C-alpha cells in the first residue's frame, strides 16, 4: 500500500513538472520540507492561494473600473507573477508575463483576454496541487500509522 501511494505521489509530481505546471522552484521547496515541518510545502502553497485570490480580485476590479490604469495593472500582475514564481507555477507565470506585455502596449482587450488565461491556469494548478497534496498527505498518514505498529 505504501509503495503504491509513493508511486502515485511521484507520478503526480512528475506529471506536474512534465506538463509545465511547476518548475524546479517547487522541487527546492520540497527539499526544505523535513520531519520537523512535514507540511511546509502545503503551507507555502496555501499562502500562495491567499495572495493569489487577493491579486485576482484587485486585477478584476482594476479591469472593471475605467479608465484603465495600465501602470497599476502591470504592478499588480508583477506581484502576482512574483508570488507564482515563489512556488514554481510556470504556466501561471507565463500568462502573467503575457498580460504585462499587453499592459505595456496599453491594449485593454489583450489584458482582459489574457487575464482569463491567467485565471484558468491558476484554477487548473490549484486543482492539480490539491490532488497531489491529498495523495501526499494520505501517504504521510499511512507511514505514521504504520510506524506506530
Write up this protein.
The protein is mainly α and 149 residues long. It is 84% helix and 0% strand. The chain has 6 helices and no strands. Helix 3 (40-64) packs antiparallel against helix 4, helix 3 runs antiparallel to helix 6 (108-148) and helix 4 (70-87) packs antiparallel against helix 5 (90-104). It is elongated.
Summarize the structure.
This protein is an all-alpha fold and 149 residues long.
* Distance from first to last alpha carbon: 15 Å
pLDDT < 50 runs, ≥5 residues: 142-149
* Extended strand count: 0
Helices and strands: which structural class? mainly alpha
Main beta-sheet strand count, sense and barrel state: none
- State which percent range the strand residues make up: under 5%
The averaged pLDDT comes out at 89
How many individual helices? 6
Helix and strand pattern: HHHHHH
- Form type: elongated
Q: Specify Rg, calculated over alpha carbons.
A: 18 Å
Q: In which range does the helix fraction lie?
A: over 70%
Amino acid at each position: 500500500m505504501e509503495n503504491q501511494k509513493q508511486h502515485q505521489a511521484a507520478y503526480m509530481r512528475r506529471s506536474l513538472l512534465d506538463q509545465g505546471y511547476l518548475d524546479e522552484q517547487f522541487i527546492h521547496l520540497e527539499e526544505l520540507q523535513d520531519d520537523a515541518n512535514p507540511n511546509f510545502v502545503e503551507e507555502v502553497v496555501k499562502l500562495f492561494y491567499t495572495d493569489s485570490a487577493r491579486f485576482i480580485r484587485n486585477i478584476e476590479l482594476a479591469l472593471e473600473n475605467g479608465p484603465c490604469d495600465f501602470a497599476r495593472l502591470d504592478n499588480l500582475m508583477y506581484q502576482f507573477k512574483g508570488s507564482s514564481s515563489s512556488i514554481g507555477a510556470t504556466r501561471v507565470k507565463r500568462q502573467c508575463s503575457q498580460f504585462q506585455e499587453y499592459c505595456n502596449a496599453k491594449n485593454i482587450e489583450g489584458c482582459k483576454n489574457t487575464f482569463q488565461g491567467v485565471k484558468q491556469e491558476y484554477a487548473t494548478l490549484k486543482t492539480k496541487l490539491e490532488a497531489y497534496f491529498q495523495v501526499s498527505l494520505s501517504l504521510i498518514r499511512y507511514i505514521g500509522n504504520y510506524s506506530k505498529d
